[in-house]
């Protein structure tokens, strides 16, 4: 049986359920017997569990990297070091797996400057990786290079492709493993030929990225942890 809080009310005419903060609440009129409520709940069990799972994964969203002091770049942790200096810039020390963010002492809003430097760093890393891989995959797929490549914040999607052959990728992919990024690349490049998710589209994806189901599953399970805003 599911754990729940029961709230009875005189005015209520029907039974209703709500899942909030991973907790289940049942609202019921006074006249409905407990046994009836519980057997009705059994029939709603799958839905309730799906809601709780969804809210749990949202709650696990990545904490602000500046608070934890760690950022994942291509799924590898990088320690973040914050400094004040003469100018604002980022610098990656590949040997010590450290990213140093320096903010000029003249900057007023230091917090937001650190965050914009961090995003600038991720943007730069992801863009270089995308440029290289898009080039490789276009050769393999015998596809002309896209007209434009953009990296930006997306809330709910990992990439997009339009009729003008402009490809856009979510900045937060920079935190994902490269084999997952490759899947998003092949997915978007396949859209240059098929602007839909038809079976011929998926055939093209699977031809150039046979493990596409595994990668798309990885994004479903871990995707929310890649974001921090
Ligand atoms: Zn698509």
| CATH class category label of the largest domain | Alpha Beta
Sequence of strands across the biggest β-sheet = 4-5-7-6
Cα shape: flat
How much strand? 15-25%
**Helix percent band:** 40-55%
Q: Number of helix segments?
A: 7
N-to-C SSE string, H for helix and E for strand: EEEHHHEEEEHEEEHHH
The main β sheet shows up as:
4 strands, mixed
Report low-confidence residues grouped into runs of 5 or more. none
Using DSSP, what is the number of strands? 10
What is the CATH architecture descriptor of the largest domain?
2-Layer Sandwich
CATH homologous superfamily assignment of the largest domain = Metalloproteases ("zincins"), catalytic domain
What's the overall average pLDDT, rounded?
91
Total discrete domains: 2
Give the N-terminus to C-terminus distance in angstroms. Answer: 35 Å
Bound molecules: zinc ion
Assign the CATH topology of the largest domain. Zincin-like
Radius of gyration of CA atoms, rounded to a whole number: 24 Å
User: Helix/strand-derived class?
Assistant: alpha/beta
């Amino acid at each position: 049986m599911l754990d729940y809080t029961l709230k009875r009310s005189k005015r209520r005419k029907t039974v209703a359920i709500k899942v909030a903060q991973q907790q289940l609440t049942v609202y019921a009129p006074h006249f409905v017997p407990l046994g009836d409520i519980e057997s009705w709940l059994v029939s709603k069990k799958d839905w309730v569990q799906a809601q709780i799972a969804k809210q749990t994964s949202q709650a696990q969203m990545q904490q602000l990297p500046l608070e934890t002091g760690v950022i994942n770049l291509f799924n590898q942790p990088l320690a973040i070091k914050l400094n004040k200096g003469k100018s604002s810039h980022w610098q990656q020390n590949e040997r010590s797996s450290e990213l140093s963010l320096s903010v000029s002492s003249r900057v007023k809003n230091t917090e937001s400057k650190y965050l914009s430097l961090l995003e600038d760093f991720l943007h730069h890393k992801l863009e270089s990786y995308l440029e290289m891989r898009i080039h490789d995959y276009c050769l393999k797929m015998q596809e002309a290079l896209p007209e434009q490549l953009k990296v930006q914040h997306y809330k709910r999607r990992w990439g997009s492709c339009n009729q003008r052959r402009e490809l856009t990728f979510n900045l937060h992919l920079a935190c994902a493993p490269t084999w997952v990024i490759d899947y998003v690349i092949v997915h978007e490049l396949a859209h240059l030929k098929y602007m839909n998710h038809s079976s011929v589209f998926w055939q093209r994806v699977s031809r150039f990225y046979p493990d596409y189901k595994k990668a798309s599953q990885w994004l479903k399970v871990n995707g929310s942890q890649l974001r921090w805003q």
